[in-house]
Amino acid sequence: MQFIIVTGMSGAGKSTAINHFEDMGYYCMDNLPPALIPNFLDLIKDKQDIYDKVVLGIDIRGGILFDELFNSLNNLINQKHEYQILFFDCQDDMLIKRYKETRRTHPISKNDRIYEGISQERKMLQHVKQGADYIIDTTYTLPKDVKEALYSMYMEKSEFKNLMITILIFGFKYGVPIDADLIFDVRFIPNPFYDQSLRPLTGNDQAVQDYVLQFDITNEFIFKLNDMIEFLLPNYMKEGKNQLVIGIGCTGGKHRSVVIGNILSKSLKENGYMVNIDCRDIDKDSKRGK
Prior knowledge:
This is RNase adaptor protein RapZ. The chain is α/β, with parallel strands linked by helices.
């Protein structure tokens, strides 16, 4: 039997993930008190022809019962039950934004500020996260990307790398993103903006791609960039990093940075990484382009 425990920060996407598992044919149960996990497995152990793939959603809504999780997991080990822990995480500022947008209160914040509840929950989940088999950080990740990652991991049995990568494409004239871990300035590449026929287009158009990629300096940069990123990513993962934002900027975030970002994204996906592209400024200043 394949047994997966889905847990993590409230608002990070656990419920959505459980829905995806259900669509993939898993028997799913959400918010089961951790102390009842061994009892649940005893109940279905003789029905593994029916319950061969099981997902349990465990989170802070269980209150004090959540403290029983480690005891229950120890019991599973003693009873020779194999399991995986899939942990969903998200940065605090994004969690706060999600709670405000949905006008929901944090499950343990009560009358306190949302931030206080998130901070308390993060402390309570610290050891669970450390013991997780996989961590998915949804700070910059689209729901469809999470769905694709789960399908790849559990249906196609592909190797999952615990690093969620966002390629943030931006224009320097609109400001440097403060949340980027790495920033690459591609303004040294010849600019399609000065070609009147290319000015209204973007780096997603073939004509702009052909223009940018015709230069030796562009292709040399792409080679060196891929080489450096391939070196950095395993080392970031080794240090426990789960979310990486790579900023690629040109003057307006519309032409050169889009071309380079798309190429980098394709390369990373081919190497098994989960990648999301955010073209922050591509629609700004549509009359002038650049």
